[in-house]
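[job 0417] fold request received: Lipoprotein
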Amino acid sequence: MTGWRAVLGAAAGVLLLAGCSSGSSDDPKAEGTPKKGSGASPSASAAASPVNEPYTLAQDRAPRTPAEAVRFVRELTVRADYFGTGYRKRDPFESDPAEWAVLDEDCLWRREGLPGTVLASLTRMYELPAKGGKGPVYVSLTVTVHQDVVSARRDMAGSLEEALRCPVQQLNASDRVRGLYSRADAFAEGRTVVSDDDLTESGDWVADGAKAHPFDWYKFRMGPVTVAATARHGSGRTETEDSTVTTDMAKGMTFVAASIDSRGKAGDASATAEPTEPKGAGQ
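[job 0417] inference complete; emitting structure tokens
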């Protein structure tokens, strides 16, 4: 576990640099979000954010009703290549925005209707197909709109407690994660420049009793909106390749954070379907 925690620390460092860099790149794997109307892959400028100015969404700019929140999460652009080259959508691709995942008393994840403090929650699923003797990688990203900032903060606190309560968690009938280790404010000196709050979690996932592989989980809060992502690594990868999976997933989250931030700055957070150029770009 110690070695894998170091990988998460390295990913956090990459996110810190993503938040501070300015410049640009045509590399499809480089950091950043495409400009509105552009067909280009993410560039370095898109993840740029001045130090100590995290991506956020003011509560008065956030969706106010379940209908607005559903429109917000559905229109938010989350491309498969945000998480690296070769990723594609899984089938099924999206969850029901009127439900979310809950960890019950038996440490089993299940879906149930949203509580009154949540307006909408949408999970999208992606995969890096098996190739060249390497098993598939499964990535999911969930955007949840809470009724207010207080509710979002409580959700973050509850997420931090889950790993302590359930170090072994059953994802479904065949998959489980174990040895979970959670950490809040994992970025530079306890302060993230990516979002208002952040959590990281690492462990191992086991499918059908096979060999364990790395499991990553990140969660950001931007005002009343939370963004969470998981990565279940496939077999046959070196430590360096696993590290790349982790950092690419984390960087993909910054593209989504940049989009949420820019939509809030533009006015009505439910009005813009495509991500605009994030703050700091071109500086």
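[job 0417] notes: Residues 2-266 form one domain. Confidence is low (pLDDT under 50) at residues 1-10, 12-51, 271-283.
[job 0417] exit 0
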